[in-house]
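hey can u check if this looks right to u? its 203 residues, i copy pasted from the old doc so theres a chance i mangled smth
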Amino acid sequence: MLAPGHQALGLSSGLIVLTLLPRWGLVPDAPLEAVLFMLFVLFGSLLPDIDTPRSKLGYHFWRGLIFVLLIAFGCYLFAPDYLDQYRDELKVFVMLMAPLLVMVKSHRKMTHSLMFIGVLILYHAVITRFFEVPPYYFFGFITGVVSHLLGDYLTKRGIPVFYPIFKKHFRFIVTFKTGSSFEKGLVWSLSIWNIWFVVTQVF
């Protein structure tokens, strides 16, 4: 699946999970936190493809990371009070980047497996042990990652679900080719549904 497909599927998954959060006792306190939740979803929906420089996230990863660090450093020097308002979010972002440095190997390997999700869950447990981070941010992040794996599971290439134990790629019974007309139609359909869902919830 290409980046637009992963983003559309991620947004759809995030909107569904966002409506379920109150049932789990996890409710964002402000509209900004709901927006940040969806940003974590979008980031997670592109994250597994960081293992290839041909992807949007992989291509811009190092440039973007340096840019964010420069902004954070600038705020630290010239606007420390503003930086304090988002200190927890910055901690989460930086700490979530660390495991990727040892997992990036080749496309559709470690980052497209159940082990990757397991490592993220374990990493989240470590973060919440030492920092007071609202759990719904992680729900958004992992929702995006799972939606990405689901999207690639529907493609003809499939994903190595049990990597590195088994390197075989698994795929759904019905599949489509990455970048095909079917995928483009799916992206349009999901985009229309996302807009409809947001409009009906707001109005």
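The chain is about 65% helix and 0% strand.
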